[in-house]
Structure formats: structure tokens, C-alpha cells
Write a structure and sequence with these properties.
heterodimer, A: 885 residues, alpha+beta, Four Helix Bundle (Hemerythrin (Met), subunit A), Helix Hairpins, Heat Shock Protein 90, 6-stranded mixed sheet, 35 strands, B: 158 residues, OB fold (Dihydrolipoamide Acetyltransferase, E2P), 5-stranded mixed sheet, 44% strand, disordered N terminus, disordered C terminus
Chain lengths: 885, 158
């Protein structure tokens, strides 16, 4: 391409970007002559250059726009929104033509009569009265132009006259515009009188900077990266030889390389303002389109970051600002009603913080609608109702980043936010950044993005796992912990989930071997490993590796396109010793750990809330209706399955309702005569199974599954009903399942007794909740034990000290006055009772509890609703006692 | 003379030959960047089976594809002692190495001896082959380099 043309394109594009911004500013502040002057001159320059280069289409457009702006400038026409829109669309058209020019090296064919027509029409409307005829003294030479004059163009005669009449202007000092491409003086000629002073100083600056293509810089960066690699290799070699004469020069080389690297990186740095430049225009257009009043504030536009990073975040930023304007901010009326200023504000800010750049996008709009997001989450099956219930608002808000969350129809109108937020997050993930959202309903929403300054060279921790080495970006590494069995840093397990106690928090762990499918990775090996404590956003977790080497500056090389789908890696690199290793992507690991990690990882209110709730014995209850309108409930954990069967398959046999279920006959039990068994359609059943037998309770409708405290307030004398409790604000009957089991099979309990040991064993059951005592008693009886119950630990101690012997004691942990731990300690301190096995029941089993339980001498720990587990544990304890005896 | 030479060249294609198992294969010479001994191969966890790993070849990261796996010829018997070789190719700015058992000579073959794949050819070979050359005493399977890489893209989707 012609050098001249290329320079013209670069320059004009830059100028146009400035014009965009300035026009929007001007519209808001129409009396600011300085801004207008600036715009006017820029457009004028474009026009002049186009004429010079022989680009008639561009010239005509620029001329028409300039003419109209001239009206603004001399004050004969107000800068209406309509006029500015017209000029903006002209600028857009100019940009289109420039694109075509860049592509084909010639102006694309076509005419712009529509736009020019509009511009001229507006210009004519703007002329209120024809100017008074001008008189000039002197000889005028008639001059001829080969084409008719365009509106706003002065005839050559007039020009001539103007020159004669004008006295040399005193040079007006001009404020230098903030962003200014070094213009060619030739193109500026018409405005020269005002610009002369500037040009002199500008030309100096112009000579101090040169234009370098981005390709050249990228190439330099690649070369420097290679140099860094080579230096690392040399350092590695010298490290192995203690006495080497290379040491000193190499040290020097190393320093120079570091400086060179820094220098080259600096050339690639660009102010983030470049990515923001288009925002005012976008906001202006959106505001017009949406009929909202929006103001955009930008802070820290001068903050610099690598242009590669800048390119990658440009689109996500634009997207989020659009979202804020479109969905976040309310209309003027809504804002007034909410007592906010009519004008909504979107604030963009950027600043440096320890090797990262932080970008915030905040608006003072309505915030995220957690309820709508919840509905969406449920509708898309991203989480179950029970899970969602437990989540904090902040956790729910994070769902806007879930992949595919917004792809469903019309999320904009539904959730108020979220179009393509998953895409935004992906883009940010790609560059190793993180994004966080904070929303306060009615007050506003803010996104915080944290990204590395540069992508090319990062500091990484080199680790080993399964015999291979991997790099973990230092950016997300918080600390290193050495795992050792029998120390405070030992890896503990809840079922198969490995966790580490770290400063009174549980840190979820993931073994790198297991994650990457490498051989080995047994638990024993894991217990001797190193834990890389990693943070991604607000999520903390530990990556268990076999060994840790050192940190190294690595040059990130993209993964081969055939391997890029592996989300665990963000790239690969060549180490100092020449070998290739994979760079672990902490984001990928966080995702792989999935939502399972969040309950452990959360350090916010949610965790506290969950813990508080758990201590209050929250349980899942199935609420249903059967017979009467009063809601009924039964602990979900007692139910084996919820079934819906075709009512026609129900058979009547021997006066009882039966259904063929999984190859056997299952009796159907009605809670009362009020419950009707349907003749056709779907019949809902609650199936209870035990020891290979099943029975079903007939219900009318399954209403809901709720998590609530179970607090039976009014005991009942109706058989089959334990009492009433308030669940979700409604008085609800709590069903006694134990009552119905024998109704299905008369031998439900007896059958068991015969199969269990001849000698009946005695159990002492301690629980402050009558519900649990009532619920567990039949279960234990069914398993062949004689059961004595106590409502408090003190009462139980009295029973035990009175010499009543029990084979096993089962105790609740959370009890008033004396809890399970204290009770166990009391038992152990008395030689008479010290040997009695104690099984602890708890609705919540944390690693802390397990540990404490072991210390006070619990023999086993069983979750409160795990009936099978309890029976198994009982058998084990009584058998153990036998062996001991 | 030139004209004749050119006309003759149009009918001839040059191939870098390689053996995998007992089979002879040919890669269009224009697509072959270099031939190297794969050294210090780093395996890539979670990668498709045919990706033997990645390695550093003069500062470039090369993705190595095991042609035995790719062609379904089966893992090489251990302890053969012979060092396997790799043929370096390039695709869309990325470097790949095709891991083969041995590299043979460069053959200039007449297009007249070339035939389409027999219909009963093993599909694992057929999907990366663009034809067969009849040589004296043996057959040469022409490898379509792009298709070799294409399939790994598909395998990854699975």
C-alpha cells in the first residue's frame, strides 16, 4: 500500500475516534467553543487530506459535516441532538469508507447522497435569515470554478474579498487538545492562522516519536521472550557448575535481558483509555435509543497495560457497559420514583495493584434480581431447589457467569442482566484474569476485573505430579503448605472429599494426579504431598502435588489448537532445561472442582449462615397433602423414593391395595380414611424400603421439599401423627412413619427380631427432640433392640449410674444443658460406664466434630438420618463388645 | 527443454516415505518441514490418545502425533531398540510431528501408478489416505497430512 495512503488511514482513524468522543462531550456542553474548535479542525483536516489524495466521496462527506458544524460554531444554529446524531452517522459512514479503502486501496463505489442531502437540509433549516450583502472595496478579479458551489462553500470571489478585508489576526493562544495525532502541516493550511503557534511546538514532539507497526513490536516481544528462555537455559547450566568463569558475564547478561524485556514490554503498553474511547459514543447512542439519561464517568484512563491484554478485554468491557446501560440503569421515571437522581451513572475505573490491573465497571442502577436468577437457575437445572435455598445472594449472583446461562430466550427481559456474561468471563479467563460481581438491589451493580499486566511472560511455580512437571501461575498461588500425616497440616477426609484445616477454615483439596488422570495418586501419596493454596476469584482451594521446585519466569506459548480444549491448561512453555511443560489453568481447576467446592470455600456470610442453620438442626422435609387440606410433612431422609404410578395399575387383593413394584407386590397404605386412592391418572406415592421390603404411603400431592427447623410444638394423639410444627410459616402435621410400617407388613418388626441375635441387646437413646426419639425407637426396635429413651443427658446419666446396664448408648450431640461431647466425657470419667460404646448422632458432621468426637471417646459417628448407617454401627459396636468380653 | 521437464513434473509427485508397522507410507514432500528424532517428549494429560506429547524443537513447541495409534496399527512391541523418528509438518502456523517407525528415501512417483483407496481399506487408514501408489514389490499409502490433523480435532470433541 502507498505509504501516504497508509499514513492517512492511521491518522484519520485516530482523528475520527477523537471526533466521536468530542462530539458527545460537545452535545452535553454546547457552549464550549474549545471542544467545537477541536472537532471542527479535525474534520477539516480529514476533508483537506481527502481532497489532496483524490478521495471525492470522503471529501464530500467531510465537507457536508464540516459545513453543518460551522453553523454550530458561529452560533447560527443550536447543536441539537438530531444534528449531532446526523454528524455522528456521517462519521460512521466515513469510517466504513475508510475500511473499504484499507481493504481495496481505493474508495468503495457508492454515493452518499442520502446523508449529504440530510446534512444540507439541516444546514438550510439552520439559516435563519440570509446574511446581509457584503461590500468590498478594491478590484475583484472574477474567478470561475468548474462545478457548482456546494452549500456552505464560499465562492472564489468571496474568498478573495475575505482575504482583502481581513486584518492579520493576533495569534490566539490555544489550549492544546488532549489527544492529537501529529497532523501534517499541509493538511492544516486553511486553519493555519490559529494553529501556527501549536504547530511549532508540535513538530518537536512529532520528531521525538515515530510510528512503529504492531507487528514489529510483537516480533520484538517474541524475540525477547526467546532471549529470556535462552538466558534461563544458560543460568540452569551454570548453576550445575560451581566454579565457572561464565558466572559474572552471565549475571550481566541476565540483568541486561531483564532490562530489555522491561523496555520492550513498555513499548507495548497502552493506556486503557484506548479501550474506553468508544464508550461515551456507545452510551450516548444507547441513551437516545432507550430514552434514558446516562452519564459515564471514567477514572484512571491513563493506566497502562499490554496491548494484547487490552485487545482481549476491549469487547468484554464494551459488553458490560452496554449491559449496564441497557438493563442495569432504570428509566428516568423509575429512578425518580426510587428517589434517585434521574441521570444514571456508569463508572469505569482502572488502577494498578501489585502486578495486576484492576478494572471496575459500576452503575447505580437496580442491581441484579436474585429471585429471577434463581428461577432461571432452577429452570436450566444448574442447581437443585435445595441447593439454591442454601446459597447466599452473592453465590446466586455468580450464576450470571455460568456457561449457557443467558442463552435461553429473552434473558434480558427476565433476569435483567446477563446476556453473554459467560462469554465475558471466558474472555477474561483466557487472559488469566478473574471477574467478580457485587450487587445491591436498588443501589447498583459493580464488576471487578483483575487481569495480569502482560500475558507474554509470567512468573510461575514449577511443581511435580506423577513424574511430570507443571507450571502454576504465581498470580493465583497464595501459599504453600507441606502436608504431613500426624501434624496439624494433615489431610483429612469427609467421605472421599479431601480437606485441609488452614487457620480455622476448611480448604478443599484436589489432587493434581487425579485431576489429570495420571497414574498413582493414591491417598497415601497425597498425604505426603505439597499443597499449593490457590485462589481464583473468591474461591480458595488447594492443589495437591508431589513436589515443588522453584519459581521461574516463563514465556507462555499457546497450546496447540488440537489441545486447546483441555481446560486444565492455559498454555505450555519451554523451561530453562529445554523441556516443554504444561501451564496449569487455575480457572479450569476451579471449574473442575465445580460447585461442590463452594460450600467449603466460601468465606462469606453464606458459610456462617449455613453453619448457624446447621446447628439449629435444619432438615429437609417433604411437604405433601393427603386427605385433609392441612399440609403434612415427613423427613426426606426417611423416604426411599418418590413415585408416581399409573392409578390403573393399582390392584385390590385380599382387601388391601397393592401395586406391582420392582418385581414384587408393594402394599399401599392410606394414612386415614380421608385419603382416596385414585381410579385413574397418576397416583403419587412415598415409598419406604427396609430390608428388601417396600411399602408406600398414598398421598394426594407432593407439595415441596423445604429445609426448615423441626420444632414440634403441639403433640398429637392421632395415631400416625407425631404432632404439629410450623414449617414455612404454616402449621404442618408431622407424620410418624414408624406407625405405618407395621400396617403394611404385620411382621415388619417381628421378622427382624427373629433374624437378629437371640439375646436382645439394650440401647439407651438420648435425644432432646421427642420427634427423633419417636422416630428412631421403632427403627431400633425393628432391628431387634430394646430401647430406653432419655430426653436429656442428665437423665441418661442418672439411669446409667442407677446400675441400669445398656449394651450401647446412642446420643444426640446438640442438646441443651449438657451436649453429647460433655455427656461422653462424663461417661468416660466413671469407671462403671467407661466401657459402654457410645454412638454419636448428629445432623451435621464436620471434620472438627469428628476430631472432637474421637477425643471424648465416641466409638462412632452417624449422621442423624442415616438409619442404615446407625444399624450397621450398632451391630459393629455390639459385636465388638462381644469380642472384647 | 524446460517445457518438457515441466510437463513431466506435473505427472510426478515426490514423497517422503516412512514405515509404520510393516506398511510403507508417503507424505507429499512439500508438506514436510523436517525429519527429527523426538527427544524429551512431554506427555499431555487428558489429550487424545494419538497425541504422544509435546516437545521443544529449536524453540518451537511441537505436538507429536503417534501414527501407530492414529492408523490403528497398534503399539510398537517393546525392546525393539530402534529409535522412532518424527516427520515435522506445519499447519496453520502450528508445528506438528508425526511419529513413525522409520524414514525411508524420497521417491518421485508417476501419477499413473496412483489409484484411489480400495473400498475395503481399513477405515482408520482410509480416513487419512488420499490414494495408493503401486510400487514394485509393495504398495505405498499416500498420507493426507491435513486429514491426519483433522481427525485429532474430532477425537478431541469426543
Amino acid at each position: 500500500m502507498d505509504d501516504l495512503l497508509r499514513e492517512f488511514l492511521t491518522e484519520t482513524n485516530e482523528s475520527l475516534d477523537v471526533v466521536d468522543v468530542e462530539l458527545v462531550r460537545f452535545e452535553q456542553d454546547p457552549n464550549n467553543a474549545k471542544i467545537l474548535d477541536n472537532i471542527f479542525r479535525l474534520v477539516h483536516t480529514i476533508k483537506g487530506t481527502c481532497g489532496f489524495l483524490g478521495l471525492p466521496r470522503l471529501e464530500a462527506l467531510a465537507h457536508a459535516a464540516e459545513t453543518l458544524m460551522g453553523k454550530f460554531r458561529d452560533g447560527t444554529m443550536p447543536a441539537t441532538g438530531e444534528a449531532v446524531t446526523l454528524i455522528l452517522s456521517t462519521i460512521d459512514r466515513i469510517k466504513e469508507i475508510l475500511d473499504g479503502l484499507e481493504r481495496d486501496q481505493q474508495e468503495p463505489a457508492g454515493a452518499d447522497t442520502d446523508l449529504i442531502g440530510n446534512l444540507e437540509r439541516m444546514f438550510k433549516q439552520g439559516i435563519a435569515a440570509p446574511a446581509a450583502p457584503q461590500h468590498t472595496v478594491g478590484l475583484l478579479v472574477p474567478q470561475v470554478l468548474e462545478r457548482p458551489l456546494r452549500p456552505g462553500e464560499a465562492s472564489l470571489d468571496e474568498l478573495e474579498r475575505a482575504f482583502r478585508e481581513t486584518k492579520p489576526d493576533p495569534v490566539v493562544p490555544k489550549v492544546k487538545e488532549p489527544v492529537k495525532a501529529p497532523d501534517k502541516p499541509a493538511a492544516k493550511a486553511p486553519d493555519a492562522s490559529a494553529d501556527k503557534a501549536d504547530d511549532a511546538s508540535d513538530s518537536k514532539i512529532a520528531h521525538q516519536s515515530i510510528r512503529v507497526t504492531v507487528d514489529t513490536l510483537d516480533y520484538l516481544m517474541t524475540m525477547v521472550s526467546e532471549l529470556v528462555l535462552t538466558r534461563n537455559q544458560l543460568l540452569e547450566i551454570v548453576r550445575r557448575h560451581d566454579e565457572s568463569e561464565f558466572k559474572t558475564p552471565l549475571q550481566r547478561l541476565s540483568n541486561v535481558t531483564a532490562e530489555l524485556q522491561e523496555g520492550v514490554m513498555k513499548t507495548r503498553m497502552q493506556p486503557i483509555g484506548n479501550a474506553w474511547q468508544k464508550m461515551p459514543r456507545i452510551i450516548r447512542d444507547l441513551a437516545h435509543e432507550l430514552g434514558k439519561q446516562i452519564e459515564i464517568e471514567m477514572q484512571g484512563a491513563e493506566t497502562e497495560l499490554d496491548r494484547q491484554v487490552l485487545d482481549l478485554i476491549k469487547d468484554p468491557l464494551t459488553h458490560m457497559v452496554r449491559n449496564s446501560a441497557d438493563h442495569g440503569l432504570e428509566t428516568a421515571e423509575e429512578r425518580r420514583a426510587a428517589g434517585k437522581p434521574e441521570k444514571g451513572t456508569i463508572r469505569l475505573s482502572a488502577y494498578h495493584e501489585g502486578g495486576h490491573i484492576i478494572i471496575e465497571i459500576a452503575d447505580d442502577g437496580r442491581g441484579l434480581d436474585a429471585e429471577r436468577i434463581k428461577a432461571k437457575v432452577l429452570a436450566q437445572g444448574l442447581a437443585t431447589e435445595a441447593e439454591v435455598e442454601k446459597m447466599s445472594e452473592a453465590q446466586i449472583h455468580k450464576f450470571i457467569f455460568a456457561p449457557g446461562f443467558s442463552t435461553a430466550t429473552k434473558v434480558t427481559s427476565v433476569s435483567g442482566r446477563g446476556v453473554g456474561m459467560d462469554v465475558v468471563r471466558n474472555n477474561i479467563d483466557q487472559i488469566g484474569g478473574t471477574i467478580d460481581v457485587k450487587s445491591v438491589t436498588g443501589v447498583g451493580l459493580s464488576f471487578t476485573i483483575k487481569i495480569p499486566l502482560t500475558l507474554a511472560i509470567i512468573s510461575a511455580l514449577i511443581v511435580e505430579s506423577g513424574g511430570d512437571r507443571f507450571a502454576i501461575p504465581q498470580l493465583s498461588v497464595v501459599e504453600l503448605v507441606r502436608a504431613r500425616a500426624n501434624t496439624e497440616h494433615r489431610i483429612e477426609r469427609i467421605k472421599d472429599t479431601a480437606v485441609l484445616r488452614l487457620r480455622n477454615k476448611l480448604l478443599p483439596l484436589v489432587g493434581l494426579r487425579k485431576l489429570l488422570g495420571l497414574e498413582g495418586g493414591t491417598e497415601a501419596e497425597m498425604d505426603q504431598g505439597f499443597i499449593v493454596v490457590t485462589q481464583v476469584g473468591s474461591q480458595m482451594f488447594g492443589i495437591v502435588v508431589d513436589g515443588v521446585f522453584h519459581t521461574e519466569e516463563i514465556v507462555v506459548k499457546p497450546m496447540s489448537s488440537r489441545l486447546r480444549y483441555i481446560s486444565m491448561f492455559s498454555g505450555n512453555t519451554i523451561l530453562g532445561d529445554g523441556s516443554v511443560i504444561m501451564i496449569i489453568d487455575p480457572n479450569g481447576i476451579a471449574q473442575a472442582m465445580g460447585s461442590a467446592i463452594t460450600p467449603h470455600a466460601m468465606h462469606d456470610e453464606a458459610a456462617e449462615a449455613a453453619r448457624a442453620a446447621a446447628s439449629e438442626q435444619v432438615m429437609s422435609l417433604l411437604v405433601f397433602s393427603a386427605g385433609s387440606a392441612r399440609p403434612k410433612a415427613v423427613p426426606l431422609s426417611l423416604i426411599t423414593r418418590l413415585e408416581e404410578i399409573d392409578a390403573r395399575t393399582i390392584e385390590l387383593s385380599n382387601g388391601r391395595h397393592m401395586v406391582q413394584y420392582r418385581g414384587a407386590l408393594m402394599p399401599l397404605i392410606r394414612m386415614s380414611d380421608e385419603v382416596r386412592i385414585k381410579g385413574e391418572g397418576a397416583q403419587s406415592l412415598l415409598v419406604f424400603s427396609d430390608g428388601g421390603r417396600s411399602m408406600a404411603l398414598v398421598v394426594d400431592e407432593i407439595v415441596d421439599i423445604v429445609e426448615d427447623r423441626l420444632d414440634i410444638q403441639v403433640a398429637s394423639n392421632i395415631p400416625g401423627v407425631l404432632g404439629s410444627a410450623v414449617i414455612k410459616g404454616q402449621a404442618t402435621e408431622i407424620i410418624d412413619v414408624g406407625h405405618f410400617l407395621p400396617l403394611a407388613f404385620e411382621d415388619w418388626f417381628r421378622r427382624k427380631e427373629t433374624t437378629v441375635q437371640k439375646k436382645t441387646r439394650s440401647v439407651l437413646l438420648i435425644d432432646d427432640s421427642p420427634f427423633f426419639r419417636n422416630m428412631l425407637t421403632p427403627v431400633l426396635q425393628a432391628a431387634g433392640y430394646t430401647v430406653t429413651t432419655a430426653g436429656a443427658a442428665k437423665e441418661a446419666l442418672t439411669l446409667l449410674k442407677d446400675g441400669k446396664g445398656f449394651d450401647v448408648v446412642i446420643t444426640d450431640i446438640e442438646m441443651p444443658e449438657m451436649d453429647g461431647f460433655q455427656f461422653a466425657q462424663a461417661l468416660r470419667s466413671d469407671p462403671r460406664t467407661a466401657k459402654v460404646p457410645v454412638i454419636a448422632l448428629s445432623s451435621m458432621v464436620s471434620a472438627d466434630d469428628l476430631e472432637r468426637g474421637r477425643q471424648v471417646g465416641f466409638h462412632d459417628y452417624v449422621a442423624k438420618f442415616d438409619r442404615a448407617g446407625l444399624i450397621a454401627s450398632l451391630k459393629e459396636q455390639t459385636a465388638a463388645e462381644y469380642r472384647a468380653a | 527443454m524446460n517445457i518438457h521437464g515441466k510437463a513431466a513434473d506435473e505427472n510426478f509427485s515426490e514423497y517422503v516415505t516412512a514405515t509404520v508397522g510393516d506398511q510403507l507410507f508417503g507424505l507429499p514432500i512439500l508438506r514436510v518441514q523436517d525429519v527429527f528424532v523426538p527427544d524429551r517428549l512431554t506427555r499431555v494429560p487428558l489429550a487424545p490418545v494419538e497425541v504422544a506429547g509435546v516437545l521443544n524443537l529449536r524453540g518451537r513447541i511441537v505436538t507429536v502425533i503417534d501414527m501407530r495409534v492414529r492408523l490403528g496399527i497398534g503399539k510398537q512391541e517393546r525392546e525393539t531398540g530402534a529409535q522412532r523418528m518424527a516427520i515435522g509438518i506445519e499447519s496453520r502456523g502450528e508445528s506438528y510431528g508425526l511419529l513413525i517407525d522409520a524414514v525411508g528415501e524420497v521417491l518421485k512417483l508417476d501419477g499413473a501408478s496412483r489409484e484411489a483407496n480400495p473400498v475395503n481399506l481399513d477405515p482408520r487408514i482410509a480416513r487419512v489416505s488420499s490414494g495408493i501408489h503401486r510400487l514394485e514389490g509393495q504398495l505405498l499409502v499416500v498420507i493426507d497430512v491435513d486429514r491426519v490433523l483433522e481427525m485429532s480435532a474430532k477425537a478431541m470433541a469426543a
